[in-house]
Write a structure and sequence with these properties.
Immunoglobulin-like; signal; mainly beta; Cu-oxidase_C; six-stranded mixed beta sheet; metal-binding; oxidoreductase activity; globular; 3 domains; about 475 residues; Cu-oxidase-like_N
């Protein structure tokens, strides 16, 4: 396994000033346990705390985000971290289709930063999801996002896209959750009032009394957290059904999640409701990806939510198995509600006539320090792909390297048709997918609603920052 790192040394920070806090469960101290291979000793077993929320009112969500380096509680230990709203796990932004988000971002870092609303179908230009913006130290930038009524409900996220510093800023703490309301309307009436939890998967390495930002070795021992907590306890009643919003908001690593002895019932992926609910024993959540799932409480007892051992290839990284959380089934049993089968309306691009066919080749140098798309490293002043609004294109994404890559496109979702030549019968569109080492996939993407310059890239942010990103321009 080759170590991967980003040669960027930063003196950074990030925080968010907002009003109100979500209800938090009381902290129950327990004996500290060392993690294998990890330097810090942190507490385990506290009740799960869902992040505080900022919720839209009357069609508008107004918020102020202060980006700042502060000493905060990170998995039970006071560490210097990059924060939004003064938190390692910042507030969840909750909006509805058709809303507006008015967000003022104040940068108190020593370097520039910006914001990307990952997966949302929104304009990439001006003061919207413009990742080419540099918010300089001491500046405040006013973002304004107008969301269509057709915006898909589900789980999204927000994070720094300040290239080539995306990896250290996100690894330092700059990532949080966005929820677009409306997913529960597809559920049967008996399930529309169920408890839901954010399960934000976020990892950190430690250097002294700080969350490490540089150099970042992807395969180094790390602390995997849920909502910034180490192995929290999630309570459920026997027979109860809950909605979990599983989101990989880490900078670089993969999660292969398993709830031992139980299945996940998937109802949405990457913020896109599925046409049919399907069961999965494990879910591979590549960097940047999300799943909304239903989980049912079993017989009284404890069940581990784990990430299983996973290897991204000969030139990649071997991630060990780790416990993420403990599900405790206890209390008065509930009569299990019937789970749905058919879900949201089907969207299928496989029968569309492509306006263009393209090949995108991911590759890297032998040392694993430079990364390329079609043989070129990222240049924000060069347009690599120019596509037309209201057309469908077919892309072949080929991976000529010996490690997997997490492929992500801004603005529009896409449909995976095949992987390594084998047809994929997915249940909806996605914005992030895994590309096998020395493999390929074929996808179709429809460009709808918005024009402007944006990007496509590997969402392993060390790779993105080291060149594996291309500029996509959508034109009329």
């Amino acid at each position: 396994m080759r170590s991967r790192f980003l040669v960027v040394v930063l003196s950074l920070a990030v925080a968010v000033g907002v009003s109100g806090c979500g209800a938090e469960s009381p902290v129950v101290p327990v004996a500290a346990k060392p993690m294998a291979g990890a330097a810090p000793v942190v507490r385990e077993g506290e009740p799960l705390k869902d992040p505080a929320e900022l919720v839209s009112r009357n069609g508008v969500l107004r918020a102020r985000i202060v980006v700042e380096r502060r000493k905060v509680d990170v998995a039970g230990r006071m560490l210097w971290a990059l924060t939004y709203n003064g938190r390692y796990m910042p507030p969840t932004l909750r909006i509805r289709p058709g809303d507006r988000l008015e967000l003022a971002m104040e940068n108190r870092l020593g370097k520039y930063t910006n914001l990307h609303v990952h997966g949302l179908n929104v304009s990439p230009s001006g003061h919207a999801d413009n990742i080419f913006v540099h918010i300089r130290p001491g500046q405040t930038f006013h973002y304004s996002y107008g969301y269509l009524k057709s915006l898909r409900p589900g789980t999204y996220w927000y994070h720094s896209h300040a290239d080539p510093m995306s990896a250290p800023q996100v690894a330092g703490g700059l990532s949080g959750i966005i929820v677009v309301e409306g997913l529960k309307r597809y559920l049967p009436p008996a399930l529309r009032g169920i408890t839901e939890h954010v399960i934000a998967l976020k990892d950190f390495q430690v250097q002294g009394d700080s969350v490490k930002t540089s150099p970042l070795h992807i395969g180094a021992p790390t602390n995997r957290t849920v909502n910034g907590q180490l192995n929290p306890t999630i309570r459920i009643r026997p027979g109860e059904t809950q909605l979990w919003r599983l989101a990989n908001i880490s900078a670089n690593i993969y999660y292969k999640v398993q709830l031992a002895g139980q299945q996940f019932q998937v109802i949405a992926q990457d913020g896109y409701p599925v046409d049919r609910v399907y069961a999965a024993d494990t879910l591979l959540i590549a960097a940047g990806a999300r799943f909304d799932v239903l989980v049912r409480g079993g017989a009284p007892g404890r069940t581990l939510l784990r990430t299983l051992a996973y290897n991204t290839g000969p030139a990649g990284d071997a991630f060990p198995q780790a416990t993420l959380a403990t599900l405790v089934s206890a209390g008065a049993p509930m009569h299990p509600a019937a789970l749905p089968s058919a879900f949201a309306p089907r969207v299928d691009l496989s029968r569309a006539t492509p306006a263009a066919r393209r090949t995108l080749v991911f590759s890297e140098n032998q040392a694993g320090t430079e990364f390329y798309i079609n043989g070129r490293q990222y240049d924000p002043n060069r347009v690599d792909v120019r596509s037309r609004l209201n057309t469908v294109e077919e892309w072949t994404v080929r991976n000529d390297s010996d490690e997997e890559h997490s492929f992500h496109v801004h603005v529009d979702h896409f449909q995976v048709l095949s992987v390594n030549g084998r047809p994929v019968h997915g249940h909806g569109l996605v914005d992030t997918t895994n590309v096998p080492a020395r493999g390929s996939l074929v996808l179709r993407i429809r460009f709808s609603d918005y024009t402007g310059r944006t990007v496509l890239h590997c969402h392993i942010l060390n790779h993105e920052d080291a060149g594996m990103m291309a500029v996509l321009e959508i034109v009329k």
